[in-house]
């Protein structure tokens, strides 16, 4: 009896690490109120599921999200544009894109014609604090900075800006609400298109190779594209009431 009990305890001892590993959970920060975050969460949940790792996401203001991810208090950043790790040295960029983002200029003035970042120069431009593509694209011009996307549209409605800059998918619901409230349309101009990447904190560098292979598989088998297409269909159905 005693020998059998000791044998059972020994089995539990050897199985315990594997049980803990199977229940491992990683936490990633991401930009709050972002459609790209929604898509990226779906992509990365599936990627980590294939590695038998549970994930949680903490939605934060854009600038704070990166600061927390870089500090190591969490396991990385859900998504950002390319090469953020060149500034945030504790982050490792996985080389497989998990999505794409269109940076757009939005205006209520149909007479404004825009082709690229340089064409913003004559206008009053508002961007959101911590949104790196907007900060980089407007670095040569004077801008007004808001802390939320809602405040960007608020300033546009009050004519404090000629143009607001943000990501297309993130803007859709806000633009719909704005048009309904203000009784006037908005006009979109694509400034630049960016691939989006997942970032791990360097403490998790052991996951880089395996996770990269998983993302390559998901890219090749169409999983990433299908997740994006499914989300766009969802928001399009909401827009048109179908």
From TrEMBL:
Residue ranges occupied by any Solute-binding protein family 3/N-terminal domain in the UniProt entry:
27-233
Keyword Signal (UniProt) = yes
Pfam families xrefs: SBP_bac_3
SUPFAM superfamilies listed in its UniProt record: Periplasmic binding protein-like II (SSF53850)
Gene3D superfamilies, from UniProt? Periplasmic binding protein-like II
Keyword Signal annotated? yes
Which top-rank group of organisms is this from? Answer: Bacteria
Q: Which UniProt keywords apply?
A: Signal
Q: List the signal peptide residues.
A: 1-21
InterPro entries with a match to the protein in the record: Solute-binding_3/MltF_N (IPR001638)
Q: What is this protein called?
A: Solute-binding protein family 3/N-terminal domain-containing protein
């Amino acid at each position: 009896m005693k020998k059998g009990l000791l044998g059972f305890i020994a089995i539990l001892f050897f199985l315990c690490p594997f049980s803990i590993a199977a229940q491992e959970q990683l936490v990633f920060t991401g930009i709050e109120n972002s459609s790209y975050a929604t898509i990226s969460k779906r992509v990365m949940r599936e990627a980590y599921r294939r590695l038998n790792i549970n994930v949680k996401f903490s939605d934060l203001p854009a600038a704070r999200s990166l600061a927390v991810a870089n500090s190591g208090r969490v396991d990385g950043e859900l998504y950002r544009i390319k090469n953020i790790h060149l500034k945030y040295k504790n982050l490792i960029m996985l080389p497989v894109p998990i999505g794409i983002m269109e940076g757009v200029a939005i205006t209520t003035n149909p007479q404004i014609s825009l082709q690229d970042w340089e064409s913003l120069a004559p206008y009053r431009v508002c961007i959101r604090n911590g949104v790196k593509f907007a900060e980089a694209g407007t670095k040569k011009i004077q801008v007004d900075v808001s802390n939320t996307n809602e405040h960007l549209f608020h300033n546009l409605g009050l004519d404090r800006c000629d143009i607001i800059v943000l990501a297309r998918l993130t803007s859709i619901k806000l633009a719909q609400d704005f048009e309904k409230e203000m009784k006037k349309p908005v006009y979109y101009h694509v400034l630049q298109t960016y691939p989006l990447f997942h970032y791990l904190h360097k403490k998790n560098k052991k996951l880089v190779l395996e996770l990269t292979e998983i993302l390559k598989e998901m890219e090749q088998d169409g999983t990433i594209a299908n997740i994006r297409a499914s989300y766009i269909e969802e928001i399009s159905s909401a827009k048109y009431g179908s």
